[in-house]
Amino acid sequence: MVTQALKVKSNPQASRLRSPATVNLPNLLTASRILLVPVFIVLLSDPTPTRSLMAAGVFALAALTDLLDGYLARRRAQVTALGRLLDPLADKFLVISGLILLVDMDRVAAWLAVLLTLREIGVTGLRAVAASSGLIIEAGLLGKYKVALQVFAILFLLLSDGPLEPSFLDLELIGTLILYLALLCSLTSGVHYLLETQRQLFRT
């Protein structure tokens, strides 16, 4: 697992000349993911089977934008500092809102949601500290696995006891087991973020 730290250019004018435009398709997709979070929350404010299914669709669409924005940013050479900062924040808004709402629906244990949320807040704080020193700590491979596991877990939990749940599967159990794996990846990658941030700060 490799985490990269990028030093912000000291010459703003030169940086603008060499950097892609901030307003681009990948960043717009990231922004759309953030805008889908309130829609997701409103749908689950009254979690009937139909609204839960609609919320799962919105959540899946938001998760799809996460795949697309990263792919397009690399493919079109439109990776920006803003995108590197907004992308993980959008993921956190989406996942944390899903966890909180699932706790309210009695499908996720409160302690599990608290641990996952505290980790996200802690890593966001580390990113802020790094950014104040001109560093951007990118997500490592384990952190990306963590996001994927959280997304699948939340989707399975949203679809449990719904019209699309197969009779031979317990989606709530599957989602819970995946969420435990996500917790393991989450805590491990959180420790890595802490050590990497400390290493980069002392090196600079």
Describe the protein in words.
The chain has helices at residues 12-18, 25-43, 49-75, 81-104, 110-132, 141-159, 171-203; strands spanning 5-7, 135-137. With 204 residues, it is mostly helical. It has a single domain, classed as Four Helix Bundle (Hemerythrin (Met), subunit A) (Up-down Bundle). The chain has a two-stranded antiparallel ribbon. Helix 4 runs antiparallel to helix 5 (110-132), helix 4 (81-104) packs parallel to helix 6 and helix 6 (141-159) packs antiparallel against helix 7 (171-203). The longest helix has 33 residues, at 171-203. The protein is globular and about 55 Å long. Mean pLDDT is 84; it is low at 1-18.
Summarize the structure.
The protein is mostly helical.
Weakly predicted, low-confidence segments: 1-18
Share of helix among residues?
A: over 70%
Report the strand count.
2
The largest beta-sheet arranges its strands as 1-2
What pattern of helices and strands is seen along the backbone?
Answer: EHHHHHEHH
CATH topology: Four Helix Bundle (Hemerythrin (Met), subunit A)
- Please indicate the percent range of residues in DSSP E strands (runs of 2 or more): under 5%
Output the structural class: mainly alpha
Average pLDDT works out at 84
Shape: globular
Largest sheet: 2 strands, antiparallel
Number of helices: 7
Q: Which architecture name does CATH use?
A: Up-down Bundle
Radius of gyration computed on alpha carbons: 18 Å
Note the gap between the termini: 22 Å
CATH class bucket: Mainly Alpha
How many discrete domains?
1
CATH superfamily: CDP-alcohol phosphotransferase transmembrane (TM) domain
